[in-house]
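Convert to structure. Protein one:
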Amino acid sequence: MRSTASKAQPADQPGRPRRRWRSLLALLVGKAVRLVSRLSHHGGSALPGKVVERIDPDFLARTLSGLPRGVVLVSGTNGKTTTTRMVASMLESLGLEVFTNPTGSNFTRGVVSALVSTLGLSGRLHADIAVLELDEAYAVHFVRQVKPRYALLLNVMRDQLDRFGEIDTTARLLGQVAQATTGTVVLNREDPRIAKLAAQTPAQTGVAYFGLSDDLLTYFPTDDDMHASDRCADGGSAASTPRPVRHGHRLPAEVTLERVMDHRAAFRLDGRLLETDLRLEGVYNLYNAAAALALVRVVLEDREPDDAALMDALSKVTPAFGRGEVITYQGAPVELVLVKNPMGFRLALSSFDPAGQDTMIAIRDEYADGRDMSWLWDVDFTSLRDTGVAMVSGTRAYDMALRLAYDQVPTEAIETDLDRALTAFLEVHPGRPKRIYCTYTSMLRLRSALGRITSVDDAGVGA
């Protein structure tokens, strides 16, 4: 490893004051950009971070370097934002002061933006630990600047292949995170591409796993399982697809998800079966909860929180920004469900009964969504046949409507403009619960539009 000792300078040398002034200038400019962006409703949550990085490229590494418990990095295809929120919330409930990037802006500049909004003019971060969500590709950029003490790697699915290429490319990116982690890497035992990253961790780095009981394996198929079943359904063969060994020898897991119920789950920790109620929506978030539990236990192994405290902390976690978040409009719930790949959309549809709800689907193809929307054809929409879809919107509204037609799902209205679509959707059956399945940029636009007509928690994100 190349030594960096030559770069260190005593306080009386001129380099240190210059860095201090540059850091202060970057922070002041970043705060000004954030204020202007919010007042003008232009720009996203990452803009201040982009400006700060240009002024002071070392800002991120220097600001996070002094945390007593280091940095937790959470990455993977599905579940990053919710799992990050779970970990941060649980650690706070258990007594730590936590810094996190709450909006799901998961590029390095998004983390810097979150720092800008948190820091005082001293530039010192008052926290015990940072819990950060990073996009699979930007996680690699992050670990070149900051070595995480802990990493939680969730899964690898076919998501935004126009950005990442083959699914194994995504796994290689996460492998670089495992290689850079200095304390412990927590891995998904049931995802073969994630589990084998244990071999890439440094000799001094610990490895822990989270997993599923055998009874739940079919609830949460891996990417290989899902695409193998698709080929079989089409009359093809799955013989050429690598399948994980799902029974017999199992890697030991720190936490396993044992049973799923309505807003309740059972987990096994060191042979003990524990149950708790959950405020989170969707069966997929119960597996994310197992991942969060495993990571929290690793971080707090010196404290060894008791079972009751762990379950109580988990039961208090609320849905993350735009991920099953419920916004009340004229006395009725409007739920935003983020969807961005076949597995996530499938699990979302299987988690919610459409009966008694009005359903809207909003699909856009901006860079943050992924430009290739062909993955919609890998989702089974037949669960919506009986109720139909009240509104389809977004730049790819007609593609979505065509996909629904192939599954014989009736569509009542198509409107590409999201603002007009939302207004029309809310006027249908006033007072009735509503659910919107939306891609990332659709969620941001819809959330902003809802914020203009009803109360929405501030997430610091521009329209």
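Protein two, convert as well:
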Amino acid sequence: MNIDELVNRINELARKHKSVGLNEEELAERAKLREIYLGNVRRNFRAQLESIEIVDDNGK
């Protein structure tokens, strides 16, 4: 599942939760999808931080 599909499904479950509620299976799916999404955000953020190079005025 790509990130767009993941976000769309999370949003779909959120809309359903607000309107009619979710059953136990859907609650578990929502929790799993959220963890996948957050893991992806954390990995991307960590990769961004690791690619930062700090240079002082002397070029070091």
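The radius of gyration is 18 Å. The chain has a mean pLDDT of 94.
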